[in-house]
């Protein structure tokens, strides 16, 4: 005989329902093959992708998804961090990909920063990252000996 876990007239605790919804959003993100997130938990998934990039920096797909979601959320700090992390991983490679991503990010970037990112992408000179806001970058900390922080 199957017993119901929750009585018919007893509702689900809203806190539990919220947590389950958020966990399901993260699980769906792992399975989703699309580059653009289509869900209700954008900010949560954005933080999740930031952690995925830190854990697996070589997987470009996570970088791209994070950048697109930063643009979608119009989160400039996350976008700058995501672009810096992509620049660090590419190290001057992937010119076509980088230019396309930067063009799509351009409306949220400072014009000087946009030009600097183009220059870094072309030259691979990571020392130029010094003048970009990097508070949400997860890769820059490992570069401290290579990129002397001036702030």
Structural account:
With 151 residues, the protein is mostly helical. It is built from six helices and no strands. Helix 2 (42-55) packs antiparallel against helix 3 and helix 3 (60-73) runs antiparallel to helix 4. It has one domain.
**Termini gap:** 66 Å
The percent range for helix content is: 55-70%
Could you list the spans in which at least 5 consecutive residues all have pLDDT below 50?
Answer: 144-151
Q: Give the helices and strands as they follow along the chain.
A: HHHHHH
Write down the Rg: 19 Å
Mean pLDDT: 79
- Describe the largest sheet: none
What is the molecular shape?
A: elongated
Strand percent estimate:
under 5%
DSSP, total strands:
0
* Structural domains: how many: 1
| Structure class | mainly alpha
Assembly type of the chains comes to single chain
Question: What's the total helix number?
Answer: 6
Topology:
Elements: H1 14-31, H2 42-55, H3 60-73, H4 76-90, H5 95-105, H6 111-123
Helix pairs in contact: 2-3, 3-4, 5-6
Quickly describe the structure:
This protein is mainly alpha-helical and 151 residues long. It contains six helices and no strands.
Key attributes of the depicted protein:
151 residues; mainly alpha; 6 helices; disordered C terminus
């Amino acid at each position: 005989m199957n017993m119901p876990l929750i009585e018919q007239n007893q509702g689900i605790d809203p806190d539990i329902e919220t947590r389950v919804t958020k966990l399901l959003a993260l699980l769906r993100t792992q399975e989703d093959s699309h580059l653009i997130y289509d869900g209700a938990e954008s900010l949560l998934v954005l933080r999740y992708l930031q952690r995925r990039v830190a854990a697996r920096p070589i997987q470009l797909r996570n970088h791209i998804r994070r950048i697109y979601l930063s643009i979608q959320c119009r989160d400039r700090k996350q976008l700058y961090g995501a672009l810096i992390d992509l620049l660090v991983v590419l190290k001057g490679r992937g010119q076509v990909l980088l230019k396309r991503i930067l063009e799509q990010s351009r409306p949220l970037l400072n014009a000087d920063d946009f030009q600097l990112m183009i220059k870094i992408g072309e030259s691979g000179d990571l020392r130029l990252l010094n003048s970009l806001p990097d508070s949400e970058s997860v890769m820059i900390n490992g570069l401290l000996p290579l990129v002397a922080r001036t702030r």
